[in-house]
Amino acid sequence: MSWISRLATQAPVPVFVAIGDDAPPQTARLALHTGLTLVDSPRAAAILLVAGTIPDALIPHLHRLHDQFPHPRASVLWQSSQPDLLPAAIVAANTVDIVSVLTETRDALLSGAHKTEPDILPDAPLNEWRRIGPHGQGGEGMMGGTPYGRPMAMTADDMRDGLKLDAYTADFGPFLPMFPPGLVLTLTLQGDVIQKVAVVHPPFDVDWNQGVSLLRLLGLPGLADRLLRNGLTASATQTRLIRWSGARAAIPPGLGRTHDGSDVRDRFDRLIADPANPKAPHIDGIHLTDLLVGLEWHEAMLVLNSFDTGALQRICANGGDGDDQRDTETIHASHVGHGS
Amino acid sequence: MTDLAFYTLSALAIWSGWRVFRVDSMIRATFALMVSFIAVGGIALLMSAEFIGVATVFMMAVEMMVMALFMVMFMMNPAGLNPMRMVHQYGLSIGAGFAAFVGLTVAVLTTNLPNNPLPAGRDTLRDLGIELLGQSMLIFETAGVTLLATMVGAVVLSSRGGRFGDTNEGAVPPGLHPGGAPAGRKVETGGGHGGHGGHGAHAGHDMIMEDADVKDVDTHQSHDEAETDEPAAANDEHAGHTHHTATSDPTSDKIAPGDPHKTHGTEH
Amino acid sequence: MNFVLVLPAMIAALALGIWVAAILDATCRSLVAGQGRMSLTAAAPLRAAASYMSRQRLTTEAPDRMNWFLSIASYLALAAIGLAMVPLGPNTAVIGISTSVVLWGACESLVVVVVFLHGWSPNSPLALIGAYRYVAIGLPVMLLSMFVLIAAALPARSLDLREIVTSQAGMWNVLRQPLGLPLFLFLGLSLTLRGPFDYADSADLAGGTSVEDSGADRAGWQVARLAMLVGFSAMAATVFLGGYLGPVLPGAVWLILKTLAVMAVVIALSHLLARMPVARMLGLIWKVLLPLSFVDLLWAGLAALP
Fold it and tell me: Rounded to two decimals, what is the model's pTM?
């Protein structure tokens, strides 16, 4: 092992967690372990930890996610009922100490004992090149054709201030760290403002601490760890720190308002002060379109993470008129997989 | 040493200026232009014009940043990844460039450039300040802040959110008869023209594509907020824009509520 | 100034500063998280860097490779330029020009450019969102800092940092212009992409402009951010805390102590203050912070009149 590798084995293991259905409840608490770093992006990680079961519809997303890890990489399946989900993955039984498995795997990767996992998908564009013409132009006139099946970015009506900006449509995938686990949305963005929402896959039924997610989204990872550690017992220091951080004031008032008048601020207060009994928000007839359209990205993430899993599943199930407007898979298939 | 610095900076300025027109990626073009300006700022530093040199770098960084941002917002091909030709009116531009080069060279070679070196240790910054602003510093500062407030106010008033509500609905002039339909031009809904006032060909591809070349030539100019003297006559787009502004003053709220050009301080 | 001696010394100082900043950051985070001082191991930053370097440098589809590299290198270079402008003694600075405040302003504006390029280069949507979101915040925050710096330059009657330090011989600027340092600290948070002003690399974008960075790119960007923290802290210590001025100890020691103090405050703020959505922050900057900077300038102007 070179000296860089030897030094690297003493650093915390960078792990990206892909949370599946029936993930073990201690998955969230992995963030507290000093021997691990749970990272936001697969590019920063060495090991992919798949916790729980991945439904068949999302397995292609998992394969795409797996290929984004830098070499040397390894995958660990934890409490998974699908041992052949990823070829060459290490299967960890439910009761084993997952941290030691991860640490040993990382050390083995660096020493070369464990071979890095090869790509599952071919490293080629999903769609063929189309229409290249003479003089280096593609397509007719100014349009340049559709290279790799991607049409040019055309401007579309904007709803906020009347500027017509380029519209970008893509699927935002099930393993994004700022999304509830398992949620797949097709979003049309103009800039960072959401124009259209369509639910592709509802979130999993997994225990996940919304207060911790909200604090992370508000730029307070240290306080989020503190909240995670203290769990249901709110300590005075924690309450004081959260109050003085201005987290409540940072959330815009009236964001994500449901029919009973509760907005993200109210839900945040309740999650921080009284995490044991969440109040079921009144969400009949509300669809994600009502909640998210017109919000910018940060606000939309705050709204998504303020609902508990059951409420969010019901919201996604509430019909909307956006579900049949998804752009064709063929054109945007190469966009699919951001964060998946 | 100074000579070496001068030659290096000049070479950098010329090379990056050339790259502006050769690269396909608009972002690279923008920042190549910035590099060119930074090199010129460096030459100003060599001439003991320290404030001008550094201020050039400062201003150009901000301006190019805003221009790059507008390109990403409105262009369909800001990275030049699509194999389309990003330059237009090739022959005309080469001719114009050559003519400009000849003209400028003649001007430089035939002028009597001044040759009065500064005494060492002279505080050029103080001299510059007194020369530019004289006794009127307070007036300039006040005017600057007032202009800023005006620009911000104009943006607020002309954005679709408006000040009192959607500008498509609010601030409608009264009818010619009491209780009648509102007077003035009707807002054109649909099509890109009303929404833009004809600006931004890269954005307006839903418009009919004739005169595509003409529109594209000046789009880059129009994105650059620093320019205040765009040739209004040379392009039907701008003519159309002027027309809009000239005739629609009392009812300006109804025309192109989100028109980005209106919100700049430039006169048209 | 003998460049052969000074340049390596400055680079060594910058490296040391980066290392200290990394340790302070990890310590502060674990304190806020209630984990105690467990991260105060000296080798932790080196291990983290080695961990990054042990992995491959990946690339995305059709990235702007030149700008990807240039953005990281330029960010580091701008931090070094900031540090080089800081006067180390009476009339001594590595970069000593009469308009150093404006040069610092140019560095600030170039940071905005550089962060945008960092988000633009990987050809990835989350990175690009982080990039232009940062521009929307970074430009007005730069305005804030310019007014505050002009206010600090008024008593010195000069835009030269060396003169500004000399003018604080009677009283430090933090005392006679109390609004200056807090507003300048916000600039620091924005320049180093931290805490409430971290719109470029934020968690709600899964890492923002660095979402596609791996391996050496990632290590380089994190090192550059810490280097900018060091450069900014030295600048703040110079403009507001009197730089090398101080009674008993030599000037360089005072400068280092003050830089460390500012660094600790910036790191603490970044872990303790929440980040608002962009529109709300824009409102705060334009409606509250910029008027405060005008007040600061007015105050400094009135004080400098007689």
Answer: 0.85
